[in-house]
Amino acid sequence: MDKVSELPLPEDFLDFVEANGLDPSIYAAGDCIPRYVRLKLGREAHVEEIEAEIKCKLEKVGWLPGFYPLPTDIQIANTKAYKEGKKEETYKEGKDDVSCSRASEDGPDGGENSPIEQVALTVPTTDDPSLPTFTFRTWTLGILACVLLSFVNQFFLYRREPLTVAATCAQIVMVPIGHLMASMITNRVFFKGQKWEFSLNPGPFNVKEHVLATIFANAGAGSVYAIHVVSTVKVFYKKELTFVVALLVVLTSQVLGFGWAGVFRRYLVQPAAMWWPQNLVQVSLFRPDCCCCSCSALPWELSISAFEEKTMDVHTKSMRKYKQVPEWWFMCILLLNILATIFICEYYNDQLQLPWWGVLLACGLAIFFTLPMGIIKATTNQVVPLLTHSPVNVARTFVSKMVINNIA
């Protein structure tokens, strides 16, 4: 009890935990994150078989019927019990086994799931290509969420204590609004039988519409880094930066990042080891059973064996069914944007102070750092801050030109 009393947790919460037979210390130990599995109804009789396979004793959670605590070091995604349990759920009745409340089916090719257990337990491996995607609901909810989050977050950014509205807020709110739109909007088909045939209400609000609208929201929720540059130059350095120049700085910097993302897609997105832990939080909310998820947190550690995994996982293979955006598109966008940036810096040199070779230097730094920093972020969810040393190196190159130190 002395150890429990020292935990930085509310007393009411500690009383609740102890009353339900839980060990309060698990909420303070960084390497012991609570995790649970759920047995299907009527399968409690097979607990001993499951225990023998995972080599772990399962004890019921009194306050969460059907759930059993599971240590974080126990791997279940590739066990026989887990796989057979999911096959039963998908194809037939009458066979036993365990399924995690956030687990997904085996791959469509019958092979193993993602080598990353957190991904295997969170991201479904099935897909329905027939679901409508770019619908009236998608565009309406997506654009509204993007505009509102962009305005609100930018408006409150300049407060001494900024207020930030995360994209997950919009993601949650979209669900009831989407279903409301599906029930109220007419399902009339316009231009029926013609090439431009469409309907404002093609059916029930589906997960793909939800995902796409959330992508819109994410695009607006994040702060544009170039805005900080513009604000610093105008407010602190009292330098003239017209609206047109400021807008061009913002647009070119954003498109530049978009180009880098496309070029490095094959290295930072397609490999199975690049699992982007932060995104799993939002992905889990797209599942219909997300409210039943009893895992209080996800461990962000990645094993060396998973990191060295170079083959595509089942999710990347599933995406191959759809036409990919060609990589040369991103390359063209990147090169054209670099040329446009050089022209802008030369034409408005009196305001930006950045010579053409300074643009190339900045692009060289981006090429050098994007891949290693992207790998670290994609596998550990950690961000390496470049702002601690990049401005110093730039300042040594461009002495007495403070505007460059912010733009470059």
Automatic annotation (TrEMBL):
Localization (cell): Membrane
Protein known as: Oligopeptide transporter
InterPro entries named among the record's database cross-references: Oligpept_transpt, OPT
Listed GO CC annotations: membrane
Family: Belongs to the oligopeptide OPT transporter (TC 2.A.67.1) family.
Topology with respect to the bilayer: Multi-pass membrane protein
Transmembrane domains' residue ranges: 139-157, 163-190, 243-264, 328-349, 355-376
Organism phylogeny: Eukaryota, Viridiplantae, Streptophyta, Embryophyta, Tracheophyta
